[in-house]
Amino acid sequence: MTSYGDEATVREILTGTGDTWAVVGLSTNTARAAYRVARVLQRYGKRIVPVHPKAETVLGEPGYASLAEIPFPVDVVDVFVNSALAGEVADQAVAVGAKAVWFQLGVVDEAAYERTRAAGVSMVMDRCPAIEIPRLG
To answer: Is the pLDDT reported for residue 2 higher than 70?
Structure first.
């Protein structure tokens, strides 16, 4: 299996890239993985920014319909959309100046990974920050 995020990149994104995480696909549906992961990120001191077409307030944070609508800088874009849509989100993340892109478990787009890295943006793919962050200790 190819690794799309070595341990050093995972650690850097979680500890050194910044604390504002746009979570694409985050809604008020508490049964979804995005909700659980966002809650863990909050517990570890990250500011989560919900990005979802409904632009709902989630976990006390106002939501936005797209990355382009967020009126402040975003450090990391955490992507919870299916692989067919994820590449476009990665391109949007680069366009808004995000420092890193994180594709969740099961979200893989090798071409988007190459484009994002070529643009100078750190990227992890097919990993979960809620699993990785407690391991940093």
So the answer is: no
Residue with tokens 């979804």: 32
Is the pTM here over 0.90, yes or no? yes
Q: Are 111 and 133 in contact (CB under 8 A)?
A: no
Radius of gyration of the CA atoms of the chain, in A: 13
Provide the H-helix boundaries in the chain: 7-15, 33-43, 83-95, 110-118, 129-132
Burial code of 74-108, b = ≥16 C-beta within 10 A, e = fewer?
bbbbbbbbebeebbebbebbbeeebbbbbbbeebe
Tokens representing 2 are 């190819």
pLDDT tens digits for 26-48? 999 999 999 999 999 999 999 99
- Average pLDDT value for the chain: 94
Contact 129, 12 (CB under 8 A): no
